[in-house]
Amino acid sequence: MIWETHTATQNGLHTEHVSGIARICHKWKVPIIPFSGGSSVEGHISAPFGGVSIVFAYMDRNVKLNKDDMDVVVQPSVCWTDLNQELAKQGTGLWFPIDPAPSAKIGGMIGTNCSGTNAVRYGTMRDWVINMTIVLADGSVVKTRRRPRKCSAGYNLNGLIVGSEGTLGVVTEATLKLAAVPDHFSVAVVPFDDLRGAVSAAADIIWRGMRIVNEGGATRPRVWKETPTLFLKFSGTKGPVDDSIKTVREIMKPYSPPAFEFARDEHEQKMLWSARKESLYSLLAMREDGEEMWNTDVAVPLSRLADIIEDSKAHAASLGLKACVKGHIGDSNFHENITYNKADPKEAEKAKMAVKTMVKRALEMEGTCTGEHGVGIGKKDALLREVGEDTIQVMKLLKGVLDPYWIMNPGKVFNR
């Protein structure tokens, strides 16, 4: 990866202010790099050509809640966890169900079309964006559509902007769908003797090496069995949730898991689910001096998920790398976190090789180089292999119309 810093920063205050910044940058052909939460793992906030980083720290308001319509208007630096806390505080009975890393902000979530552990039921970010206010490269301000949940009027600009990684425009406001908070939640944890059995046994899986969580200490006093493990989340009214748990128990029987533990109250839910949400922080806590962590993702057809997880885990081990694998079976997306010594060129090269090999195998399995992290600066070659030169040319034509000087987050997705 090529990582460079921006030349200047400018706080975005409101849409017209951001529009003014864009007009100046457009006039002088200065790159614009949007920054909302900074939690990107694929280099989206880097500035390989210098330029101005528009920081949205002051654009963090929930602009308007339309409770009866079950939607909310927010600015780009709103954190999804803060939004849900505010909705709960107001007693709305509503929530925003897309749940990536706890530090993710709405602007970046739109940019990468992220998802999270709820993806199997609630989909991805694209499914929850009603409309957006966008500042284009020349400072023009457009709104993608109006507020009804269903709309067939004109081109689907939402689908174009969501997942474009800030290369087509800057999101300054978004209207998001909300969902009713389920009456009842429960969580189950099911250890397995082998990974393939775990992948085959459930519709929503997170597979990980439990030693990472144990040694990181984030879920103490609970100590987890170090084995391929399914984490299952149930939601709905109490009766159907109880029925679902019974059904899942029956589904599990042919695989003979050594245990099936489900939460009996809210405290146990938090404890059982904590291993999933604490895994990244546990990995970070375990790093030694000089170590970095490479966090990347791919997605494949469901039938190939077990193959690529096994292959990737084995390949990293053969290179002598510490790697943690976790995945979402519901959307066939998995993440590999590789820890390596950045001061050791050979080890850094091994980490790079592990990632490139994982991506290559995903593409060979008719998968994608990224399920939710985005292309950024590190997977541009992989995108070309994935979709082909003709498709890239169509993308470049669209980019050229909206951003003729290529100043919007340049160096990401593909090169000029």
UniProtKB/TrEMBL annotation:
One Gene Ontology term of the molecular function aspect: FAD binding
Main location, first listed in the record:
mitochondrion
Reported cofactor(s): FAD
- UniProt keyword annotations, A-Z: FAD, Flavoprotein, Mitochondrion, Oxidoreductase, Transit peptide
Q: What is its EC number?
A: 1.1.2.4
The EC category is oxidoreductase
UniProt cross-references to InterPro entries, sorted A to Z = FAD-bd_oxidored_4_C, FAD-bd_PCMH, FAD-bd_PCMH-like_sf, FAD-bd_PCMH_sub2, FAD-linked_Oxase-like_C, Oxid_FAD_bind_N, Vanillyl_alc_oxidase_C-sub2
Q: Where in the cell is it found?
A: Mitochondrion
Reactions it catalyzes = (R)-lactate + 2 Fe(III)-[cytochrome c] = 2 Fe(II)-[cytochrome c] + pyruvate + 2 H(+)
Which PROSITE patterns does this one have? Answer: FAD_PCMH
Q: Which residues form the FAD-binding PCMH-type domain?
A: 1-181
Coiled-coil residue spans: none
Among its keywords, does the record have Transferase?
no
Q: Which Gene3D superfamilies match?
A: 3.30.465.10, 3.30.70.2740, Vanillyl-alcohol Oxidase, Chain A, domain 4
The GO annotation for biological process reads: lactate catabolic process
A GO CC annotation given for this chain: mitochondrion
Give the UniProt family note: Belongs to the FAD-binding oxidoreductase/transferase type 4 family.
Spell out the protein name for this chain: D-lactate dehydrogenase (cytochrome)
The species this protein belongs to is Fusarium euwallaceae
